Amino acid sequence: MFNFTTTPPLSLYIHIPWCVRKCPYCDFNSHEAHGTLPERAYIEALIVDLEEALPAVWGRPVETVFIGGGTPSLFSPDSIGRLLDAVRARVPLVPCAEITLEANPGTVERERFAEFRSAGINRLSIGVQSFQPGLLDGIGRIHTAREAIRAAEGAHDAGLDNFNLDLMFGLPGQTRAQALDDLRTAIDLEPAHLSWYELTIEPNTWFYRHPPQLPDDDTLWELQAGGTELLAARGFMRYEVSAFARTERQCRHNLNYWRFGDYLGIGAGAHGKLTDTSRQTITRTTRQRHPQAYLEAAGTGACTSGRKALSAGDVLLEYAMNALRLDAGFDSDSFSTATGLPYAAMQPMVEAGIRDGLLSMKGGTVCTTARGQRYLDELLQYWLPETDTADGG
Ligand SMILES: C[S@@+](CC[C@H](N)C(=O)[O-])C[C@H]1O[C@@H](n2cnc3c(N)ncnc32)[C@H](O)[C@@H]1O
Ligand code: SF4
Question: How far is residue 130's CA from residue 206's CA, in Å, rounded to a whole number?
Fold first, then answer.
């Protein structure tokens, strides 16, 4: 089925599953920290987890590391340093590997950024969401706008200029002017990268059970167009649905996901995707989700709770779900290198997308049109297996 001659680039994702407080919109694997965190035990568990996973990635260079959460900045720079030393001792990190830490304002004093940098972190992703005090309260954030600004200034002071700010729009009660003001404030802080997410209401969240009043789709679409224009005018080019960067400052780790690269995921609830060229398989893995279950599993060979070999159909859909988010689109060579499949397998869906004006083809590159970006879910329907309702099943 698959025909890989070489493996795709490899990244490492490390999950830290605790936060000070659970945000009402968040469905990430994050748990409120009660009392002292088992920081030392968790770092040990991550190292054991990595060691157990080594045979699956033996000898492969790791291009990027992302320590995400949860709130990884709750951990001390010493712990992060110990973790990164252990990573370096076990996998070949490429020179200039991108090593990102997610940091929440309100959990990290700015002086600590210099210590994280000494520990090996060379990129930060700071979760700001908004600079409007009322809106921050409304989405349950623990930090003030001032703390978010100080965090960005602290990143510069620590020499970590390569940092991202996360913002969200479409927040309950947010006006168009407020959303654009948030972007301007963020740009003035001179980040290298901005992630600008539309708030989505996810199952298993407080907002799902108590739905807030949100702007309608047309308002959001106009807002998004206005924001994208503003960002471009200030040097932040969009390269993915929600990601904007200065030249050469795209997030290499996320790009690897969107290009259907491989990643090893360690830590509670972490997902991984690995290609095996000798068996010609692509496998998705998941780790024990609950922090306590994960800690108990460490060292018993049971950190991995799920493993699924992907079918060609799975891969076509997953590739589309990722690559069609990228403004640069994809071509037949990048598709075949990442998936091990002939481009002919993708062609009928691409042709249907072009026919309906949701995709375009320029010089051999398939791109999502503006209409396709707006109706991405509809576009992805071409990749879903047809449901047969003839038998009433
Ligand atoms: C892994 S999450 C959390 C990072 C960090 N713990 C924080 O909250 O600052 C990364 C980003 O996803 C975005 N996000 C989380 N939940 C979301 C939702 N329901 N809709 C849109 N964006 C969301 C937020 O901007 C968040 O900063
Ligand atoms: S701080 Fe981040 S990871 Fe934690 S609950 Fe809030 S959005 Fe989720």
Answer: 19
